[in-house]
Amino acid sequence: MNIPFCYLTLESVKVEYTPDAEFYKIEAIVRPWRVHHVSSGLLQMGIRGVTVSDVRGFGAQGGSTERHGGSEFSEDKFIAKVKMEIVVCKDQVEAVVEKIIEEARTGEIGDGKIFLIPVSDVIRVRTGERGEKAERMSGGRADMMSLTASID
Amino acid sequence: MVVAQTTTTPLCGRLPFRSLHKDDFNPNPSFLPARSTPPSSLAAAASITTVPASSLPAVQTPAQARVDILSESLPFIQRFRGKTIVVKYGGAAMKSAALQSSVINDLVLLSCVGLRPVLVHGGGPEINSWLLRLGHEPQFHNGLRVTDALTMEVVEMVLVGKVNKSLVSLINSAGGTAVGLCGKDARLLTARPTPDAAALGFVGEVARVDPGILRPILADGHIPVIASVAADENGQSYNVNADTAAGEIAAAMGAEKLILLTDVAGILEDRNDPDSLVKEIDISGIRKMVMEKKVAGGMIPKVNCCVRSLAQGVRTASIIDGRVPHSLLLEILTDEGAGTMITG
């Protein structure tokens, strides 16, 4: 119901990412206890490759404080977050970003940020495959999409 | 109703219940099983099962029903054993003696089976009556108490000195051991003035929570009872809203559940239809309901407090009907619950 404005414009304008690349890394900084929600949401949509790391950060917008563990934290205090890194094909990026926002959002200050970084190549260590073959996971989103035979 | 007489230690091998047929401490002989010498484990089991079935005190539930109920509550007990549950106590549940004793007994029971309940309380009606006795008219602004210097003194005396200690004493009589605290003790809560301080006076927002003192209390099997009065960095007392205090303490302790006892059945999908109780909803769903004006004005601060708590990692926040006897047990140990549960 509450569709963010940026998604409304996506319907009408095809988004051009610059610099253009085949793959994008989606770096999402989210609250630690939301990681489970996000990863199960991603699995449900067929995204099967995620890396997480424990990080600390601050990023409050001027004046407002973030609440963490009952206490208020102002600008220069680091708060524990988790960084999730997911590399997908360009056409899956928007769906993944929407899903992350849906699962991680609480509406309170400190929900986090998502960064998109172009990736020039993906290589699978076990087989040496490069490019689209390496990015594709069996049983993952690309297989799910071709099963339903609809272009998303 | 049978309660524990010995000290409550966190889930030891033997449940600390005395045998049922010591008549001197059993106030309700109708709950005694017909047999004269039940084995101690069954006595313990029966004494736990009488609690959820005690809505009709005159009826003696058959022993089979009692042990069935008991074994049904096992998965819930296992799920929540060792977890912290913050209960905010207020409203009708605090005014009626019968409801008060049911809440107290529920807390002691939860403590006995190994959960870690923390009680946070307000005390609006008591404060009002003492202010009137002193010839001072209680004033409210947007639902919050206007707290000038005299009101702050009275609030502190009544909440910390009277209400807190009487709850501690009731828990002790019921067989638990309670420790009464306020936000000032061990700097549990540090307050700062609300942005609205010009109109409200010494009403405080929670700036910091230091839950350190609660860990040894809970580890030793005691029940902390917390009055929502706090001080700022300079020692000035502030009156903190008890719902807010409960929510922030739950966030600080990494609590499993936050439970707010209220005087309504919960959050209704349709305000005019009492059967449309929303049993379970997530954060985005409840925000949508607030936006659609489905949530009544007095409920909004409670909902906001729940969402704030959930955003900080509390697993679930529930708004339950404190007018129902044993609402706490219904919420924690059954699937049906006793109100609305908001999940993360």
Automatic annotation (TrEMBL), chain A:
Q: Listed GO molecular functions?
A: ATP binding; enzyme regulator activity
Gene Ontology CC terms: chloroplast thylakoid; cytosol
Name the Gene Ontology biological process terms.
regulation of nitrogen utilization
SMART domains named in the record: P-II
InterPro entries per UniProt = N-reg_PII (IPR002187), N-reg_PII-like_a/b (IPR011322), N-reg_PII/ATP_PRibTrfase_C (IPR015867), N-reg_PII_CS (IPR017918)
According to the UniProt entry, the coiled-coil residues are none
Which family would the database say this protein is a member of? Belongs to the P(II) protein family.
Protein name as annotated: Nitrogen regulatory protein P-II
TrEMBL record, chain B:
Would the keyword ATP-binding be found if you checked this record's keyword annotation? yes
Per the record, the GO terms for biological process are:
L-arginine biosynthetic process
Q: What class of enzyme is it?
A: transferase
Listed pathway(s): Amino-acid biosynthesis; L-arginine biosynthesis; N(2)-acetyl-L-ornithine from L-glutamate: step 2/4
Query: Keywords for this entry?
Result: Amino-acid biosynthesis, Arginine biosynthesis, ATP-binding, Kinase, Nucleotide-binding, Transferase
List residues of the Aspartate/glutamate/uridylate kinase domain.
83-321
Q: Which domain of life does the UniProt lineage start with? A: Eukaryota
Name any one Pfam family assigned in the record: AA_kinase
E.C. numbers? 2.7.2.8
One GO MF term on file is: acetylglutamate kinase activity
A single GO cellular-component term on record: chloroplast thylakoid
Query: Could you list the residue ranges that cross the membrane?
Result: none
Enumerate the PANTHER family for this protein. Answer: N-ACETYLGLUTAMATE SYNTHASE, N-ACETYLGLUTAMATE SYNTHASE, MITOCHONDRIAL
- Supply the NCBIfam families for this chain: argB
Full protein name: acetylglutamate kinase
* Organism annotation: Musa troglodytarum
